Amino acid sequence: MKSKIFIFLIFFIVFVSSCAKFKSEEAYLYIPELYHNSAQTAYDNGNIISALNMAAKNCKNLDYESCQLLGKVYLEGKYVEQSDSTALKYFTKGCVNKYPESCLYMGKMYNEGRAVTMNDKKRDEYYQMASTMFLQNCNDNKSSDCIELGQMYIKGILYDPYEEGINYLKKSCDLNNGKGCAMLGDYYFYEEDNKSLAFSYYKSSCDNHNPDGCLKLIDMYNTYKNTELNNKAEIISKAEKMCQSGASNLCVYLGNMYKRYTRFSRIDKEKSFENMLVSCDFNNPYGCKLLGDMYSLGYGVQENDGSALRYYDKACQLGFISACTLK
C-alpha cells in the first residue's frame, strides 16, 4: 500500500512540474505582467495606469529605473499634477544611487532652474557624472546605456562629434536592443532621408521585439512602393502577439490599419475593433477614445451609445482631454 502511495506522489509531482513548465513557456504570449518586465516598458507601450502603479511600488523597493520614470512623469505633468520638486526628489534618489539617467535629468533641471537655482557648474557636474556612468555601462555591453550616451551626443549635451552618438546607437543595435535599432531607423529616415537603411533598422528593431520598430516597419511597407518585405505574415503575427501582450500603441496602429486597405491587409472591421478593444483593456487613452467612436458609429460592433460614452469617459480619465467633451 505504501509503495502505491509513493508511486502516486511521484506521478503527481512530475505532472505538476510539467504543467508549470508548459505555463511558463506560454507566458510570454499571454501574461502581460511578464511582458511588462519594467514600469518603463509598460509606459512606453501606452499602458499608463499600470506603469505608474508599478513604478510607485518598485521605487519604494529601490528600483531606480522606476524612480526615474516617476521623476519624468512629475516633471512633464502629463498624467499627474506637475511638480518640479517631486520630480527632483525622485531624480536625486536615483542619482545618488548611481542611476545615470537620473543624474542627466538633474543636470537639465539645474540648466533650466526648475526647483533649483540655475547653475552651469552644477549642470556640467551632473552631465559629466551621467556620461561617465553611461560610458562605463555601455563598455560593459549594457545596450540601453549605449542609447542614452548616444543621445547625449546627438542632442548636443556632450560637445563632441555628432557621429559619435550614432556609433553608440549602432552598438546598442548590434547588442540586439530593439529600441536602439528603432532610433537608428528614425535617424536615417528623418535626418539622412535614407529609406533603405531606415527600413533595415526598423526590421532589426522588430526582429528584436520592439513594438515601435514593428509599427514603423509596417508603416514604411504600406507607404513606399519600392520597399520589399518578404515575411509579411511573420511580421503581422509578431506584431499581434506583442499587442496581445501589452504593446497597446501597436494595437491602436493595427486597429487603424484594418480600417483601411493596405499592402498588409484588406479592410476588416472586426479585426479593427478587436485590436482597439485590447488597446483600451491595457489603458491606452487613444485606443479607448477610438473604441468609443466605433460604438458610436456601429463600426465593427453593434452601435451602442451607452458603451460609447463609457469608453469616452475612460479615455478622459486616462488623460485624453478631447474625449472629455464627448461624455
UniProtKB/TrEMBL annotation:
Domain of life, per lineage: Bacteria
RNA-binding among keywords: no
Gene3D superfamilies (alphabetical): Tetratricopeptide repeat domain
Coiled-coil region: none
Pfam family, one: Sel1
Record carries keyword Repeat: yes
Keywords tagged on the record: Repeat
Matching InterPro entries: HcpB-like, Sel1-like, TPR-like_helical_dom_sf
Family membership: Belongs to the hcp beta-lactamase family.
Protein name listed in UniProt: Sel1 repeat family protein
